[in-house]
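=== RUN LOG ===
request id: a7f3
mode: sequence -> structure
chains: 1
length: 369
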Amino acid sequence: MIYLDNAATTFPKPDCVINAVTDFMRSSGGNPGRGGHTLSRQSSDKIFECREELSALIGADSPQQIIFTKNATEAINLAIKGCVKKGDEIIISSMEHNSVLRSSIDIEKEGVTVKIARADADGYLNEESVLPLITERTRLLCVIHASNVVGTVNPIEKIFAAARSRGVLTLLDAAQTAGILDVNCSYADMIAFAGHKGLYGPFGTGALYIRNGVSLDTLIEGGTGSLSESALMPDLLPDRFEAGTLNACGIAGLCEGIKFIKAEGVMEKERQLTEFMIEQLSAIKGARLMGKPGVGVCGLLLKGHDCVDIASRLDSEYSIAVRAGLHCSPMAHRTLGTISKGLLRLSAGFFNTKDDITSAAAAIEKLLS
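=== RESULT ===
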């Protein structure tokens, strides 16, 4: 199969990731932080190693600023619901994934005002769309780094600098860019990560970076292995936000995934594939490439065809895996003007070749004709 659905999850995973998960389950299966014995210490050491790898990747001051979650969605919910209170305002962009939209709408019932900064028809947001929405009540600005629908990359540094100069906290949704573009904590107060995408880790892994000095309420409470005598959650990071047993075997795999992207030059190959994919898909008769892809995520608007039907036929007739529909981002599709039809999305990853993309483009053009 030609797999071009890497925006949903990267596949295949590197052998080093697979081996790390299985080796951990065979030989290091102790509960991290829940004992002083060798196996528990080995688990704790591996988790700390992964914190160090991710911390170094984004330039964080300390590994303790990395909070492990089960995915980017949990990280986003923790960031939003942990810092926004009754009477506050939150600003989100009109290109956000449902993880941001739904968690923001959910807190409206708590007396929070949600404002939406409108991106243009390509899904591009700039600071001029954000600044007029900021008031003295604005607590948080959340912006997607690159669209999971069409790959348009936002000028995050400029947008966040403008917001932070007015005392607004910033949250970056880096689910689609971590490991693919340079994601740096110097311009964001919080960053949400998906471990199973550009970081090439397993499912069930994610993280939230929290800048020193940012105070959040907990999303869940429970055992941490530290300060067990207290009925309250510890104040120290990362324990405060890691209640319950972590997905230690998944984090072991994520650790190797981060090492993999650093060692293999993943970012450069992704850049080359993105350029090639734009060239090939732009030439397909009967399809329109939407947005301005800056990462390997391309959305095609099909003329006279149902994108879900074309995706199904690519799978059954050509053994090509893509995704069609609204991609859990209806607000983005309204911004792009594609809410009624959806898009056919192709997304490349490190293990794809130019031949994969050429074959997919040829198959789509044949089906459309």
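=== NOTES ===
The chain has a mean pLDDT of 96.
The chain has eleven helices and 13 strands.
=== END ===
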